[in-house]
Each structure stands twice: as C-alpha cells, then as structure tokens.
# Entry
Amino acid sequence: MGPDKRMDMTYWNPIIETLPTEKLHTLQVRKFRRIFEWAYRNSKFHRKLYQEAGIVPEDLRAFEEIRKVPRVEKAMIQKMQEQGPFPYGEGLCVPLSRVTEYRQTSGTTGRAVYQADTWQDWEWWSECWSYILHAHGYRDTDRVFIPFGYNVFVAFWAGHYAAEKLGCEVIPGGVLNTEARILKIQELKATAMMATPTYVLGMADVAKKKLSMNPAKDLSMRKITCAGEPGASISSTKRRMEEAWGAKVYDHVGATEVGAWAYECQAQSGLHVNEAFFLVEIEDPETGEIVEEPDRVGKVIITAFDRMAQPCIRFDTKDLTAWTQEGCECGRTFRKCGGIIGRADDITKVKGVLLAPTAIEEVVRSMEELGDEYEVVVSKRGDIDDILLRVEVLPNLGGEQEAILSRLKDQLRLKTNLGYRIEVHPYGSLPRYEVKARRFKDLRKQEK
# Structure
C-alpha cells in the first residue's frame, strides 16, 4: 500500500482502530503478560514488587487477573531512582548502553522522574503520536509549526517526529519568541500547530495586541493539537481557541512516564484510548473499585504495553476522568473517555464542597467579557476557607463591570456551589504562561 493511499484513509491503522472489543481484550491480555514477564525478569524493582504481592507471570491468564497486579505511583519511582544504575534506578530493564533518549518530568509534584527510552521505545512513541495526528486530520499536505522550546521535557518531541512520519513538513519554532513565531506562521502559511491551550490563547492575544493581527483571518491555521492541560477538552476554552484562530482544536492526553495514550478524533466527542498500545483502567479514588460505567469519575491507571527500557505497568497517574458512552461516528472501536478533569491531588474540599479547578476555568472562559487569564487562591481567613478569584475584564467594558461580576458570581455558585471574592486586575497584568499554567494555588497547606 503506497503512502499517498494511506494518507487518504480515516485511520492510521484501520485494522487495529476498528478491532472488535473481544479481540482487543485478547490482544491486551497477551501484551500485558508479555510486558509483565519482561519487567519481572529484567527489573529488580518490579520483581521485588510482584514477589511481595505473590504474583508471577503464569498467574495472568485472563483479563480480570490483571487487576491483582500492584499499582505503581510516582513516589515509588522517585525512591527507586535513588538506587543505581544512575540516574534511572532499579526499574531499568536494559543496559545503559541501549538507552538513547532521555526525558524527565517537570517536577511540579516533587523531584523529577528520569525517563529512559531505547530507540525502539522512541519509535513506539512516534507511532502512538501518528495515531493522534492522523485522527486530528494531519496529512502530507500540511505544514506544521511547533512553537515549544525543545528541552528535557517530552512535550511535543514525539509529535514532531510523528508529523514527519505522516509526511508533513515540520517547522520547529523553539528558539523564537512569541511575536517571531506568529510572523513565521504567517510567512510560511503553516496549517497546523501543537501547543498547550494556555499558549494557544496567549499567541492569539499577542497577535492582536502587538501585531494588530487577527489569527482567524490573517493566518492559515486549520488545526491545532493541544496537550499538557485540560483546556482543549473544556468546552468554553476550546471554543475560545477555535474562534481566535479560525481552526479546529483537538485534545490528546499523555505523560512522560506513560506515553501518548488517548486522542480526540474529528468527531470531537471524547478521547479514544489507544487500546492496542495501552490498558487504561479508571479506579474509584475512595474505594479502589475499577469503574466500568460511563460518567463516573475516577483515577486513571495505565499500562503501556510496548515500552521496554523503563516499563509502565499499572501506573497511577492521579489524573481524573470518566468513561463516556460507547460508540463514535468515526467508526473507531477504541473506548472513549472524557477529558482530564484534573489531578486527584488538585481536587480539594473547600467549605465542605469538593472543588475541581477545571470547573472554575469552564465558567471564566464561558464569559466573553473576561480575558483568557485568571488566578485562583484558596486560603484561610481565620477558621473559614476563602476563595479569591482574580480576573481581567476586557478593555472598554469598565462601565459594565458590576453587572459582569454579578453574573460571574452567579455562574460560579451554580457550577461549583461555592462563593468567591473577586478581584479585577488591569487587562494584561495577570501572569502569562508559555507552557503549563499555574493558575490554582491552595495556600492552606502552607498556612498549617
């Protein structure tokens, strides 16, 4: 089959992406047992973990038995990496001489985790991303601009190589500043881009304020792939991005320790789990029960079947999501989940009510009178929880500010069941971010 014919297809891998559920489960059991046995034989960390649990590879004969395998958490990996071989620790399954790719986590939830990949693993990363980009409509006629700063973080590294694998022309814009990136997009008539939702909105703002440019009219962007934040699966944030750029915005989910495990298709009705490469389980945070029914939120537990240097087996991502209803008009049989609601660590109880930061984002971004940026600070005022929300009202709307804030408070109360103190800051004065934003701050832990 020639590459031109393949690019015209709906699916990157039409056999795998439309495989019946029963066959997918059979494939997953076989691949799970293979990676489990590989880790058991080659990783001191995993072998000790499984021996303590009394599990050997021969025990894994059916899909349900997978759930007996102990979960792995980031803190366990951080502790394990204090041992040799440096810097990856006893979870490494190959000689150091076979490691060709180094990445690390951002370290926002503690010391960074160092991630080792062989060349085979890196080819696997690229293949995972090929599913994603093809589902987003990337083809060999696209010119793809990648604005992230190429660094030790995985970010869009694999997306770059996958775009080339699809035959796209790739423009790396890492060393350019925001204005130069926008001008390069205009100069070269780029049709696709990969970035965080925060930076997608930030670039549009810079284009309008500093370059007197309307990206939706003056640029040729047609599709944008987002990662790193929940925003592209939050309807109000997605709408802002699509209106600002005149482009379709698609979400995907991945992690340094895991890989790129889920992606939106052009139907934009949820995220397809790449079930040929990953086993995704959703676990009730309170009971530990594996959730199967739709719309019930739980933690994401992931196994990457084909990552060999540093295996990822039943890794607790702490990310929260829920299964959606089965079926998709695209014809893929991969199960769908909603976007990432947040991290279990970020879901906090305020005044006795559970609060997800994404609920605040949905409200703020749904109000056209407000700017893209905001900040939330949770603290104690005496013995009472206090929520401060800082926002920007768009220029020339000062006379309507009282009505705007009244509606904002009403929507926040309706969507989150909580009251907020609101601070209005001059437009453009709140922090702008190029990568992952840090808009939610809970100071109560520091105040103890």
